[in-house]
Amino acid sequence: MDTRLFAADLLDMLPELTLFIAIIIISLLDLFWPKNASKKGIGVLTLIALIVSAGFLIYQRIHLDGVISLLNDSYLVYHYGILFKLIVLLGVSLIVMMSFGAIRDKDIPHIGEYYVLLMPAALGAMIMASSADIITLFIGLELLSISSYILVALRKHHTKSNEAAFKYIVLGSIASAFILYGMSFLYGMGGSTNLFQIGATLQSLESSFHPMIYVSFFLLLVGFGFKLAAAPFHTWAPEVYSAAPTPVVSFLAVISKAAMLIFMFMFLPVYFVPLDPVQNLTIYSDVVLTLHVVAAISMIVGNIVALMQKNVKRLLAFSSIANAGYFLVVLSTDRPGELVYYLVAYLLMTIGIFAVVTALENSAEHQDISIFSGLYFTAPVTAVMTVILLLSLAGIPLTMGFLGKFFILLGVIQVKTYWLAAIMIVSSVISFYYYFRIIRLMFMRSHSEHTTIKVPVTTMIVIAICVVATIFFAFFPQYMLSFIEWT
Amino acid sequence: MSGQFIFFMLFSVTAIGGAIMMLNMERIMYMIASAAVTFLSLAGIYVLLHAEFLAFVQILIYAGAITILMIFGIVLTKHEEKREEPKRRFYHISLFAGVVGLFAVFYYVINQSAFPAVTREIAQDQTKEIGLLIYSQYVIPFELVSILLTIALIGAIIIAKREGK
Amino acid sequence: MDNMIEQLSIGSVSLVTLATAALLLIVLVFVTYGIYFERKVIGWIQLRQGPNRTGPFGLLQTVADVFKLLIKEDTIPNNADKTVFKLGPIISFIPAFVVLAVIPYTENLYFANLNVGLLYYVALSGISTIGILMGGWASNNKYALLGGMRSVAQMISYEIPLVISMVGVILMTGSLNMIQIVEGQAGGFWSWNIFPQIVAFGIFIIAAVAELNRTPFDLPEAESELIAGYHVEYSGFRFAFYMLSEYVYIYAIAGLTTVLFLGGWHAPFAFLSFIPGLIWFIIKFCSIVFFLFWIRATMPRLRVDHLMGLGWKVLLPLSLVNIFVTAIVLELLK
């Protein structure tokens, strides 16, 4: 246990360092950017930085041998951490590409800063995937949160957006405070900021501390639930999703969730505290039960309320709330492989569908669900790809979404939680209704509003990548699973 | 009764009192003054815990900088002095019940946990110890905080900036 | 300080009270004759006599002024926020007085030997600003509000270079303890911090003058623009409190400069060390005070935008560079 950082250790941190340096350089470049030049150049540089960082990650993965730990686990390189970081970088890169066609000067006055801010957000998410120290984890969380507060607030001249951003900041800070309070209990009992040491100390504590362990978990759960947008902590999501710039919404829906999942993935093992050695009971089983309840509420609320939505982004917000439920289920079954698989599936289909939404809402100038009407006749290729993405979201066979949900269901049945499996199936069936409503709209000629729809090339590329990957990994899941399980 | 106990009671009462006043005051200037009282009382509690460095940093940052920033925000912005809040009886009663319940839970939990009495050596030069820790074990979060603050600064500027045209 | 809290008894409490009363008395005497001295010095510089009517050589002039303030009618504007209006001067004065506790006069003569003495000074002196802003806001007068805002903006902007310039000194000593900082400057005037830290000293003095709201940085009170600034509605003893806290800060800053840069109680040459440390402290202290008056009499007032520019664009970067250079040089010399 060495508590000093050496220059050689920086090599292990290259993926993060790349972003760290890129943030500084690109934000300075942005200041001196020619006045009349397109700010897309900043976006291209951002994309390059993200890809370089991902390159270092892959290199690190190839040469990974066990676990690298720096500064008493303040920085960890481990198998699932790298996978999560790759997912984050993939997601942010797709979002940057989507933004080229979607972000317009009249919506966002500061496009340069928009691209720059995506990097600290990604950095925060990456830090959350590479530490077992509660201080570092929390700073990573705040880096992600504060960047996303600003990103949400970037549509300055849009009153609704300002209101949503303000609510998001206030509620988000309260959620952070809950997490911090929960952490302070853990620190008080564990006497260390290292999660592994806290876990070890907690196991040996006498039984008078058990209520406090529960309290710390419930405090953390409030914060986790908020950041994941899981019901009953989801109320911010529809408003923020409908008011924020669409690429930012996809960021919130995918990257924030992914980061929060790895965060929880680090915290939950702390609660393996034996209650009754005879019956083999631990606090963890109560933790799992709580997660199941929250997951069930999220799935039910998300899918049922989505039925009544007329605004596309609100509808997708409730869909993402329902997905938070699925994620909590897979998290509680402690199957990181399935978690990663479904996360990738969710990333591809969500970013894909949001890319479609950006193109449609920019040409229709509103967000009503009717933007989809007659899409098959105005932009047939886009329409077909949208259908595939929606089918994947709904969980129809031959898509990644189906396989992901299927794996989760298997896991639930394996631990014999049949009630949860039933809720999952029923809520998925409910979700068919609203996804199919969109599909039906696309094939109705009479409601067609606009004659031509311009889908920018970069947006098209993003949609195509998402669709192809969704189908490819549905037919050949073994390629992805072997990469996930590769040791 | 030791002096430490008297001071602890004093500071905790003013800290909680300030927080309650902050929520109940009508005029914003009073709210901020109450918040400042809470910040200062917390600093007092830190002194009692032998965390002098933390205490004075708390005063410097919270009572000094943040309070002033809040006052600036109020003096420079328009705000309605009178806030007509709808009388929501049920809402307030349930809120009160919730707060009391939460307090009861925390009180029970903290009171019944048998924390072992640990005697710990207090570092002579705390500032130095904190500095050493920040630059050795916690150097990664420390560096990240620098990015965090920069981002917050950039964000504040671009959100507050008026597009000059 | 900890010992005091842990063994709270009637004896220790009364001892502390007595010492505090003594300090208050000293400070009051200083303020009384500081003001007299200031008026005399400025008078001489401007080829005038200064006060010379009340008492021999005008020595009782300030006493008479204070007496006048105390017996004046205590007026509070009708539309003022009365509670805040009354609180303002008090909140402004208390920190001004409390910070004096950490200034050591000699090795043995000090009130509190705090490990984080310098931080204590910086932290508490910041609170005075709240009092000023409260007074300016509560007066319900636009000049008062403007003065208050200017004052706060100025104090915040200059507090940062002030604190950062101190970091150079802290780096040299490796401690925030004021006594240790003085001990680190023992042995002749060449080892005083003023020489290795000449840049820091310059920044410190400029920022200190700005912190004190004195000419050439007396914009908060710029008579020609703002009548009198944040205390325009104050009269009587409330006004006296604001004046008092300003002069107490002069005392504090002069003491702090002596401790940080001028070697505290140490004699400039070894052969002069037969003169007691307290005398040396007082000499250095008085020369700083004189310096402040001297600047006031000779410098014109800055414009408000220049003021902010100077603080943020010149002093702050300069003080940061100073830290870097100090750290690098110390590392090389190690």
In the CATH hierarchy, what is the architecture of the largest domain in chain B at level 2? Answer: Up-down Bundle
DSSP, total strands of chain B: 0
Roughly how many Å apart are the termini of chain B?
67 Å
| Percent range for β-strand residues of chain B | under 5%
Q: Could you tell me the radius of gyration of chain B in angstroms? A: 21 Å
CATH third-level topology of the largest domain in chain B: Four Helix Bundle (Hemerythrin (Met), subunit A)
Number of domains of chain B: 2
Largest interface: A-B, 43 and 28 residues
Keywords:
heterotrimer; B: 165 residues; mainly alpha; Four Helix Bundle (Hemerythrin (Met), subunit A); 2 domains; 6 helices; 75% helix; C: 334 residues; globular; disordered N terminus
Describe what this molecule looks like in 3D:
- The complex is a heterotrimer of chains A (487), B (165) and C (334).
- The longest helix of chain A is centred in the middle third of the chain and has 32 residues.
- In chain A, the strands form 2 sheets. A two-stranded antiparallel ribbon of chain A has the order 1-2.
- In chain A, helix 1 packs antiparallel against helix 4 and helix 10 packs parallel to helix 12.
- Chain A is globular and about 70 Å long.
- Chain A starts with 13 loop residues before the first helix and ends with a helix.
- Chain A is mainly α and 487 residues long.
- Among the domains of chain A are: 124 residues; 153 residues, no CATH class.
- Chain B has 165 residues and is mainly alpha-helical.
- Chain B folds into 2 domains: 113 residues, Four Helix Bundle (Hemerythrin (Met), subunit A), CATH 1.20.120.1200; 42 residues.
- The longest helix of chain B is centred in the middle third of the chain and has 25 residues.
- The termini of chain B are far apart.
- Chain C is mostly helical and 334 residues long.
- In chain C, 67% of the residues lie in helices and 0% in strands.
- Chain C has 13 helices and no strands.
- Chain C starts with a helix and ends with a helix.
- At the B-C interface, helix 1, helix 2, helix 3 and helix 5 of B face helix 1, helix 4, helix 5, helix 6 and helix 7 of C.
